[in-house]
Amino acid sequence: MSLSLLIQRCAHGSGSLLSLRSSLYSPVGTAGKESSVSPHADRLRENNPVYCSDVIKDITTMYMESEKEAIYGQVLPSPRYLTYQPEINEKMRMILVDWLIDVHLKFKLHPETLYLTVSIVDRYLSSVNTRRTTGRYIPRSKLQLVGITAILLAAKYEEIWPPEVKECVYICANTYTRDEVIRMEREMCTELSFRFTVPTPFPFIVRLLDVVEGLERQQQTQQLSHQLQQIQSQSQSQSQQTQMQASQSQPQSLSRSRSQSRSQPRSDEECTAYVVQLRHTAFFFLDHGMLDYKCLQFSPSQQAKAALFLALVTLHMKEQGSSYVLNNDIIWTRQLQYYSKAQVRDFKACARTMLDFVSYVSTTRYQSVRRKYSSSKYGEVAKLTMPSEVPDF
């Protein structure tokens, strides 16, 4: 059954989905200004010309400014555009995005291509509706055409080897012709004024993820240095103590050793594994937010912060147990507040909306995100125990 027919029948709950292979994404960077809070993440990659550490902060600032000065339909989608689309509803949009996630995996495209694809779909539907254009709107039979054309445009913008038009036609089960895809491509470019450098959650989340990685590496170095100094100090002290004093202090030394073992710094391998799992978990939440029409009321940067926050909470629960009392200073640290320019209360509503949708979508047939993150390639993070609610700090 084609997606177009599935969308038309979604009110009756019929249809099927593709089950496709997945691909990996690559991290990008972060920058620091004040040495007191800087994770020095850029210094780890300052000799990498691909990373562009000298301009990454300016790029992030540009996206933040674009987000604040956004024009609905041109830069950001309207959070109410479905009100003016008489033949499309939230469920149809979810079906489309769920299918686009599978198509994105099938074509083995970069993750930023997926986020730009959904942005193009939402912005186009925000521009062509009964409110902005008299008598014009997107019929439900053309919604899949809008989606596949959006992924073609996004791939041309982000990828070195974008899919060909004939591949897009084929993956739609030949529901549309090559000429229809090309005409829609021209129409969408014109309607969006060729604006494809727009803020999406992707650049914000990778920026913050690299901040976390920088903090982990910095903390690891500091703890190892501190332990080395302690060992040297203890060695000098023990050489001056008598055998009796050493015997009396043995229980205390054992106690101190046990206490320190609970706060041992992560090894390089453990640190790398933690950062990778955090990245997968953050994108797990962010991809769910992309599925949810209600998340459009929040800015892309808010969605990124909420996804990272939920990922941090999830992994802390995994390490410490579900009964572990979460601390704001542990989860959303001073450094994260500095780089994100936000405290938890600024994106808590978004985190709650995202978490509620993760619980809801698990009861539906639209499982592209859960399938994707249940694979070993993505760390099987979909199988982790998720928070039941957003912690109230």
Description of the structure:
- The chain has 393 residues and is mainly alpha-helical.
- The protein folds into two domains: 144 residues, Cyclin A, domain 1, CATH 1.10.472; 189 residues, Orthogonal Bundle (Cyclin A, domain 1), CATH 1.10.472.10.
- Helices cover 58% and strands 0% of the residues.
- The chain has 16 helices and no strands.
- This is Mitotic cyclin 6.
Structural classification? mainly alpha
Q: What percentage of residues falls in helices of 4 or more residues? A: 55-70%
Rounded to the nearest angstrom, the distance between the terminal CA atoms is: 48 Å
Specify the CATH homologous superfamily of the largest domain. Cyclin-like
Q: Give the strand content.
A: under 5%
- How many strands in all? 0
Task: Indicate how many domains the architecture comprises.
Answer: 2
Number of helices: 16
What is the radius of gyration computed over CA atoms, rounded to a whole number of angstroms? Answer: 24 Å
Low-pLDDT residue spans: 11-38, 250-262
CATH level-1 class of the largest domain: Mainly Alpha
Order of helices and strands: HHHHHHHHHHHHHHHH
The CATH topology of the largest domain: Cyclin A, domain 1
Would you identify the CATH architecture of the largest domain?
A: Orthogonal Bundle
Shape, per Cα inertia axes = elongated
What is the element layout, followed by pairings?
Layout: H1 3-8, H2 56-68, H3 90-107, H4 111-127, H5 143-158, H6 165-171, H7 178-191, H8 201-240, H9 243-248, H10 250-261, H11 268-291, H12 300-320, H13 328-331, H14 334-340, H15 344-361, H16 368-372
Helix pairs in contact: 3-4, 3-5, 4-5, 5-7, 8-11, 8-12, 8-14, 11-12, 11-15, 12-15
